[in-house]
């Protein structure tokens, strides 16, 4: 580092630095001189440009003066120029008439399109409401179908449960009936046995009675001991029939068995009546199930038919809605084009839109509500221009035009038409040999043009007033 500092501070380097500083000073001085020279040259160039512009203006004025002198000297050229201007005026008037007719047609089309748009909007709202109703009906039909399906499932479950219960009851009834039949068979066997025993005893008693009847005389003769012996015999037979030797027990058992048999018989009759009632109830339930199944099939078929009809109506309504939406889009597109065209005409004619902008909620744009008002202003401006043109032509024809120049709004000026004759104002159509004859239409007569313009002006004033009233009513609505 010290070596570098020593080299920098050496005499040779210091001399070299002084030389460079002197050169820089010289260069800066030369730069300042050149900057001053450049500023002087720029000022000189600007002065020369101003002189050139003045000379060009003088040359243009001289050229205009020379052309005017030449035009004044050349009467034939002036006559041709006037004829071309007249033809141009006729072309412009014809074109303006065509524009007015197209404007009227466009107004009628706009009015028709607005009416169609209103009808289509109403029809679209009706279709939208009808579509919502159809959707609600479809939802209710679907809910009813789902409820009917749920009820059908519930009824089927109940029917299956009842069938299962019926099977269980019938199986239990069959088991009980078999058990009771077995008990009844046993009781019948016992009863037959007891009856057989009883019949045997009765037969023995009858035989004994017969024997006693036959031996009545003998028994009468005998003593009371013999009758007691017969009683003892019968008693012994009863004791033989009794198991434990108890006659009362035998009688009580017989009475008890007879009561049980009567109870079994009454219970069997009750079970038979209950079985008949259950069978009748099962038949009624089967009939109700069949009726319910038929009603459910009918409701399902009717609901399916209604759903198909609703789907067809929905598809038709959606197609109609799509068609009306397409037509509405087309009409809105045409309205947008007409709005842009009217805006261009409005700007070209320099119409005043302060009255429309003063209205509440207006933003200075052409909308569906103020479209007719803008058209009224355009027509009013065109009628004013036509009236000014007709007045100009009328005053020039009568020779009452003053020395002041009256600017034509269509041609930019009418100073060249000031001293013309009546025949030059409405000249005949040009010959076929002229170079611009194919683009020229036959002009109207002066009186016809005046009457046409006055009648159209009065008509358009009335239509503009009606349009203003209608626009105000639309704004109020």
TrEMBL record:
GO cellular component term of the entry, any: axoneme
Coiled-coil ranges per UniProt: 38-65, 96-151, 268-327
InterPro entries in the record: ODA-DC/CCD, ODAD1_CC
Biological process (GO), any one: outer dynein arm assembly
Stretches assigned to the ODAD1 central coiled coil region domain: 79-362
Annotated keywords: Coiled coil
PANTHER family named among the record's database cross-references: COILED-COIL DOMAIN-CONTAINING PROTEIN 63
Full protein name: Coiled-coil domain containing 63
Gene source species: Gallus gallus
Gene name, Swiss-Prot/TrEMBL: CCDC63
């Amino acid at each position: 580092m010290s070596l570098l500092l020593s080299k920098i501070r050496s005499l040779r380097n210091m001399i070299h630095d002084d030389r460079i500083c002197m050169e820089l000073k010289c260069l800066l001085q030369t730069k300042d001189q050149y900057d001053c020279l450049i500023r002087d040259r720029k000022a000189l160039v600007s002065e020369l440009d101003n002189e050139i512009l003045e000379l060009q203006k003088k040359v243009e004025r001289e050229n205009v003066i020379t052309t005017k002198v030449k035009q004044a000297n050349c009467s034939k050229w002036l006559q041709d120029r006037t004829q071309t201007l007249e033809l141009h005026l006729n072309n412009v008037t014809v074109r303006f008439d065509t524009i007015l007719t197209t404007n009227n047609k466009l107004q009628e089309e706009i009015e028709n399109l607005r009416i169609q748009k209103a009808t289509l909007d109403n029809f679209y709202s009706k279709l939208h409401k009808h579509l919502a109703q159809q959707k609600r009906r479809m939802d209710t039909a679907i809910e009813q179908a789902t409820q009917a399906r749920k009820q059908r499932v519930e009824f089927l479950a109940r029917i299956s449960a009842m069938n299962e219960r019926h099977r269980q009851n019938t199986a239990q009834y069959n088991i009980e009936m078999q058990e009771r039949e077995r008990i009844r068979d046993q009781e019948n066997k016992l009863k037959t046995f007891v009856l057989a025993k009883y019949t045997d005893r009765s037969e023995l008693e009858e035989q004994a009675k017969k024997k006693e009847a036959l031996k009545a005389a003998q028994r009468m003769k005998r003593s009371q001991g013999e009758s007691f012996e017969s009683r003892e015999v019968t008693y012994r037979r009863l004791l033989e029939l009794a198991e434990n030797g108890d006659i009362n027990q035998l009688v009580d058992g017989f009475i008890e068995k007879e009561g049980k048999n009567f109870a079994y018989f009454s219970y069997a009759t009750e079970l038979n009546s209950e079985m008949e009632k259950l069978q009748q109830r099962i038949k009624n339930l089967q009939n109700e199930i069949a009726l319910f199944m038929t009603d459910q099939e009918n409701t399902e078929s009717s609901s399916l038919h209604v759903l198909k009809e609703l789907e067809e109506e929905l598809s038709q309504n959606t197609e109609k809605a799509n068609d009306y939406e397409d037509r509405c889009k087309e009409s809105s597109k045409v309205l947008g084009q007409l709005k842009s065209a009217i805006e261009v005409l409005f700007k070209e004619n320099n119409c005043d839109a302060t009255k429309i902008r003063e209205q509440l909620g207006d933003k200075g744009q052409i909308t569906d509500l103020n479209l007719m008002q803008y058209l009224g202003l355009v027509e009013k401006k065109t009628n004013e221009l036509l009236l000014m043109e007709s007045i100009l032509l009328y005053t020039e024809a009568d020779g009452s035009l003053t020395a002041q120049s009256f600017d034509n709004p269509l041609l930019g000026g009418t100073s060249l038409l000031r001293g013309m004759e009546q025949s030059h104002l409405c000249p005949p159509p040009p010959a076929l040999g002229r170079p611009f004859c194919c683009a020229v239409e036959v002009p109207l007569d002066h009186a016809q043009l005046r009457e046409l313009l006055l009648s159209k002006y009065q008509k358009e004033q009335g239509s503009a007033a009606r349009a203003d009233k209608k626009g105000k009513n639309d704004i109020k609505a």
